[in-house]
Amino acid sequence: MGRVSAPFGVKGWIKVQPFTAAAANLLSYTVWWLGGGGGWLKYAVADVQVHGRSVVAQLEGCEDREAAARFRGMQVAIPRDALPTTDANEFYWADLIGLKVVNSAARDLGQVVRILETGANDVLVVEGERERLIPFIADVIRKVDLAGGVITVDWGADF
Q: Which of 8, 41, 67, 120 has its CA 20 to 30 A from that of 16?
């Protein structure tokens, strides 16, 4: 959902770079999980507000700048069951990461390693024998099979 970029002020607030479509989407959740590769811990959100393109929040028990600084660089997550269900042809980025990508000719192009937001459309970063940037648009994406772990694209192997 986001990443803690820095402490904010001197009263224990943190500044979060949101990974959501709108920064305000983080305001809907009263509990966040913070962590990363070293594990995750659950924190109640005492107060939160949009601050420009970022979100600033105070976590319960985080009372000063030094305490807030410990969260720098941590990822912000919420439990999957707290997310709204997606409509047909809507996907959470986290569900697309790791999927195999094949083209209409059944050529394996690689695996989605990350997704870029460009403003015009999202772009799949696919690693295979080389890196490919594939736009996530209806003209290119033919099928997303989450259960099967495959995205089928109309994309030439030489692109």
A: 120
